Amino acid sequence: MRLEGLSDSQTAALERYWGPYLEPDSGLAIHRTVTVCDGGPGGWLEDPSPGEIYRVEPLVAPECSLTLSYAFAVGEDADGQWKVALAGDAFEPAFQSLENAARVLTARMAAENGGFAMHSAGVLRDGRAWIFAGPSGSGKSTAVRRSKPCVSLGDDFGLVLPDGAGGWRAAPVPFDNMPAVVERPEGSLFPVAGIWRLFQDEKTRVERPTGLLAATSLSSCAALPWAMPDLAGPIVENISRFCHEGFFGHLHCSLETDFWGPLRESVGLLD
């Protein structure tokens, strides 16, 4: 994704926040060019109430379709140009609004390319991506921390794409809950060993749901489908295809215990 129109201060903030993921000229093919602009005051969701979950909502109008939040709007204008408009009177720093807008754009990109984005965390181990999905508080970040020295693929937001040959690959992303990303795996896409939805339990075990149950369970972890109503159907279809072609399981465990043995055994990768 190419971002144009960034101010010097916005570029500097993203360089600190995204670290090695912000490259002036990566040499990679550009999926979408997005212009960042000043949206002026007003026209946004009202500032959040104390304890409110961060809201991102669609705004469908005859002339355009936008994804809107407290301090940003992202969408395609009448000329087919993609833009991120930042509120001029925002309560949050511009780089945080840019990150949230980038999450929307990344989730859209995944769906457009046959994949999906998730509320998930992942690590790189044995050359494969091991992904932990679930809502806030399910233990995703803890699973990443307890998987060291595995390299993190992101501890809050995951991205999975088909490889065109019946397999699936995961991309590392900079959307962490850390104050700055300091490490990035060498490579852009890694074969997916599996996706496990986390359930806290005293006894460690892996279940493998199938069919509609699997698709429904993993769909509940999808990132932002309600904010992109034009892609909600394809997202569910892409997730259903992954559950048929890839490995999706339920990991019941206490993350204070060793869960890697059952994980590797569940996909037949025991040493």
CATH architecture of the largest domain: 3-Layer(aba) Sandwich
- Strand portion: 25-35%
Shape: globular
Number of helices: 6
Estimated structural class: alpha+beta
What is the ordering of alpha helices and beta strands?
Answer: EHEEEEEHEEEHEEEEEHHEH
* CATH topology annotation of the largest domain: Rossmann fold
Fraction of helical residues: 10-25%
Strand count: 15
Integer average pLDDT? 89
Radius of gyration: 19 Å
Instruction: Give a short account of the largest sheet.
Output: 9 strands, mixed
State the low-pLDDT regions, or none. Answer: none
Task: Return the domain count.
Answer: 2
The termini sit apart by: 39 Å
Which CATH class of the largest domain?
Alpha Beta
Q: What descriptive keywords fit this protein?
A:
271 residues; 2 domains; six-stranded mixed β-sheet; 6 helices; 29% strand; globular
